[in-house]
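Predict both folds.
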Amino acid sequence: MTESMTAAAEPGLGEPTPVVSVKPVVLPAPGRGEDLRVRVSAPVSGRELPIIVFSHGYGWSLEGYGPLVDFWTAHGFAVIQPTHLDSRTLNIPPDDPRTPLIWRFRVEDLKRVIDELDLVEAAVPGLAGRLDRSRVAVAGHSWGGQTASMLLGARILDSDGRPGEDLSDPRVKAGVLLSTPGLGGDDLTPFAVENLPFMDPDFADMTTPALVVAGDKDDSPLTVRGRTGSPTRTPRAPAARAFSRCSVESIRSAGSPATP
């Protein structure tokens, strides 16, 4: 267990507070082949903490994104970071029978975290009774952004261009999508079309409020577009709003900050 504090206050957000981070918290995951390991970070004080479940990009793990997570937690949010099956720390081979469905396991990982908030609270000293389960947001970077978007209402298109199963979760009230793969279709490389069919999402039904952040130098070997604003076309969704930076205020739609 570690404690840290961000160095400086953001204008309008007040002084950052000390945070506590616990890893790994192990959540039973029957049928997954590996129990789900998560990192839980939260401010050391405050109650009714809004929750952010964060999905990492391809190959990363609960060890990543420290500065961002520290910023969010120092300003009143509890952040839970699962390690997905594609993490390099697990080293699952390409021929593993789970590999074609890792995108689906990722979605289930985020839902499992929300299902097991009792275990999460119990694993962190002083956290019990402090989470506000009515204010849950999902966030993700790169592939993690697509994973998070599925809980917001995005769907994967099948080979005929028809939206697949609705995997949205009504417990999730807001989302933050950072450098998320956008619309695929003709913008995907032949390799992506053949090997990564789940990289063709549809955002028409993503009605949960979301912050979408893309960089003008984002690049990806999975698209033929090159550096044209995002790896593929930016998601277009009824509730998506595009911003150039991700602040605490941007996810207040998940609820107000923690009360003292």
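Second protein follows, with its predicted structure tokens after the sequence.
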Amino acid sequence: MILYRHRDHTGGVVNYASLLTKHLNKSKYSCYHFSQGLKPSCHKSILIPIAYILQAIIFPFILLKENPSLVHVNTSYQWGSMARDSYVIHISRLLGYPTLTFIHGWNWDLAQKIKRNRILKLLTSKTLNRSDLIIVLSQTFKDDLTSIDVDESRISLSSTMVDTKGFQPTKKEIKKPMRILFCSRMAREKGPYEVLQSIKIVKKKYPRARFWFIGDGPALDDLKDLSKKLKITESVKFLGYVSRSRKIKVFQMSHIFLFPTYYSEGFPTVIIEAMASGNAIISTKNAGITRAIHNGHNGYLLSTMPANPKEIAELIVHLIENEMEVRLMSSRNVKASGRYDVGVVTKAIETHYSRIIKVNG
């Protein structure tokens, strides 16, 4: 049994769980999806809290009916997610079902509050230690958990995953004018404002450089207005939400990928997509990103969060002026992205499944 939001939602967790269930060895595993929450169309509905209460009530009965060999919980280190999924973990263990807990997102403020509060620390460690295995996306997350007395032997590092072969270009041409891409939900904490401010600086030296923005979100209209105020509209194209096929094409046509996020990230799927499509990457030292991007090798990690637009601009200019470096980074990223391919990561998860099921007899 795998728990995650309704399949119609977008985002890293749903994408991960959907890929996992699709690529698991069907001769060994069959999956039941216990959907948490409501469809995206009901996202702002007052029915949401009612839905979670009802799902909490019916969960034990569904669990007993389906009688799974394992319960796979997909959660985030956020107040709401931890409260909801702590219940799931305790009920699963109370009824005798092995549990794998995958923590995707990470809230740094919450992590610090739990460390400082003895009651929260005790409740969190007791809950997570009931899981047979806890998977996290960075060593930092693992260190945070062990610091609150979560059993280190129960914690394993993994990654998100992408069908990397679908993103890999048949031929990547690196030439001026450079095409620079930002892809995310358009929200302040993802860094789009810093990107726009950096464009004004880059444009003074390289007016032909082109910047593409993929994604929808609450800040989109404000970002369009800002681009007009900064007088950079001729250099910027807001593509909004695009289909998967269109997204892949734009990624393959781009040369540099920008992601100056200071959101509570786990290991953003978009980083792997950018790697697989052969982009040099400029991002922040945020969570699992530091596992994949290494300064001067396959990209650059910004020194601050939120990022300084001047630093972003300087790195963009540096890459524009060093095509050979972009070529090398492109090649390295395509090759390195194979570590995060859906087939590789799914097999690793299957190994965890087999071990947990075997231990629990």
